[in-house]
Every structure is written in structure tokens, then in C-alpha cells.
Amino acid sequence: MNPNLFLLVSVILFALGVLVVLTRRGAIVILMGVELMLNGANLAFITFARQYGTPEAQIYVFFVMTLAAAEAAVGLAIVLALFRLKETTDVDEISLMKW
Amino acid sequence: MEMLAFFVLAVLAVASALVVLTRRNEVVCALALASNLVSIAGFYFLLGAQFIGFLQIIVYAGAIMVLIVFVVMLLNLGEERYPERGRAQKWLAPILSLIFAVILAAVLWKTEPLGLGEPPPDFGTVAVLGRELFTRFFYPFEVISLLLVAAMIGAVLLAKRRI
């Protein structure tokens, strides 16, 4: 089986994640787009790990998953705090730091 | 058989990512993301990385999805509103990400595939990954545990009303 097929799926998932981050306005959906991008990158890592038959890339995926869990926890806490302040999660409305 | 499983998983993954992209209801987006994460776990099993596949289901499709669905339900947002005014972002973003994907796919097309071949018999098992994690990757492992503690404290500080 051609491993480039797996890499192609990972490219498509990464591009869709970028598109979600760029076009959507809800902060939670933007976080979901980031998760999509991380998963696309992880799939590429595992494909490379299988090609070379070594464990390093799998360890990197392990670290990326830990990082994604930390990112989701902090990101969602920020969304909660913003919702308390502005009653919205629309990223266009949240421009407190813009002059 | 392997090809069939691959194409079913690929269609499932891309379709659920498209649902995340197009649906306005955030609960629907979260459920589509969950099915996307599970289908990626299927890819990991197909590639022989069992440990990472189970971690994907437990950590991503379990813990992170529960967190996201919990916040969506807590905030009770309803549907996302789209702006009335025309914005360049709306048509520029798809074009740019399409160009991005085409460039990456072209690079893939140019490279000679290495072939999957037969993996070593202990590929992707807990034993191998655990040994690596506690020998060669010991210091990164400790640093990532510090990061988890920092993220936990940060999340509590941010979400708490009054400290």
C-alpha cells in the first residue's frame, strides 16, 4: 500500500483545519480547527514511523497529544473567561486589546 | 481488504472534517470532530501503531471531546451568526488553503514513496514506547509533565471567578 495516500489524507485534514480557523468565528470551533490540524500532523508522524519502523515519531505523537490536552484546557478556560466578560464567543466581537 | 478499510476511513475523516467546517451548530461540530478523531485512530491501527491508536481514543475522543462538549453545553451558545457585510476573508481563505494543500500534495507527488513494508514485530507496542520514553526521552517526558501542571493551574486561574 502506498504510504503517500496516508500523507495525502493528513494534508487534506490539515488544510481543512486551517480553513476552519480562518473562516469560522466561534472561538470553540476555532479550537476544534486547531485540533484538526494537530491530528493531520500526527497522522503524518505515524506514517513516517511505520515507514522507518522506529519508535521516535510515535513518541513525538505522544507529546503532541499531551500538548493538545493542555492547549484545549487553557483555551477553553480562556473562552469561559471571555464569555463571562463579553457574553459572546464571537472572535470578531472580542477586540479588547485592539487600541 | 486493507485498501477498503483505508478508503472507508479516509471518506469518514474528510467528511466529518467538512461537517466541522460547514455546520453552524457547535454541538454538531463537536460530534463530527469526535467521529473524525475516532477515524484517525482507525488509521493508526491500520498502520500498526496500537498504543497510539488507543491513546487517541482515550485522550482525544474521550477526554478532550468531553471538555469541548462540556463547555459548549455550559455556554449554551446556539447557532453562530454570520456577518452581513462582505468580508475578503470569506473567499480569500478557501483559495489560500487550497493553494497550501496543492503545494503540500505536489511535494508528496514529487517524493518517491519509501513503501510501508513489514514493520518490526514489536512496532507500536507499549513495551517499546515505554522503554524509549523512560530512557532516551526521559527529560522531554519530565518537561511535558511540568507543562501539564502549568496548564492545569492556568486553566483553574483563568476559569475561576474570584481567586
List the helices and strands and how they pair.
The complex is a heterodimer of chains A (99) and B (163).
Chain A: H1 3-23, H2 27-52, H3 56-86
Helix pairs in contact in A: 1-2, 2-3
Chain B: H1 2-22, H2 26-46, H3 50-75, H4 88-110, H5 126-134, H6 138-159
CATH class of chain A: Mainly Alpha
Number of helical stretches of at least 4 residues of chain A: 3
Radius of gyration of chain A, in angstroms, nearest whole number = 17 Å
CATH topology of chain A: Helix Hairpins
Structural class of chain A: mainly alpha
Order of helices and strands of chain B: HHHHHH
- Name of the CATH architecture of the largest domain in chain B: Up-down Bundle
Overall pLDDT level of chain A: 90
In total, the number of strands of chain B is 0
Overall 3D geometry of chain B? Answer: globular
Which spans of chain B have pLDDT < 50 for at least 5 consecutive residues? none
Instruction: Please state roughly what percent of the residues of chain A sit in beta strands, choosing from under 5%, 5-15%, 15-25%, 25-35%, 35-45% or over 45%.
Output: under 5%
Distance between the termini of chain A: 55 Å
**Quaternary arrangement of the chains shown?**
heterodimer
| Average pLDDT of chain B | 88
Give structural notes:
The complex is a heterodimer of chains A (99) and B (163). By secondary structure, chain A is mainly α. Chain A has one domain: Helix Hairpins (Orthogonal Bundle), CATH 1.10.287.3510. In chain A, 79% of the residues lie in helices and 0% in strands. In chain B, helix 1 runs antiparallel to helix 2 (26-46) and helix 2 (26-46) packs antiparallel against helix 3. The longest helix of chain B has 26 residues, at 50-75. Chain B has 163 residues and is mainly α.
Concise synopsis of the structure shown:
The complex is a heterodimer of chains A (99) and B (163). With 99 residues, chain A is mostly helical. Chain A has three helices and no strands.
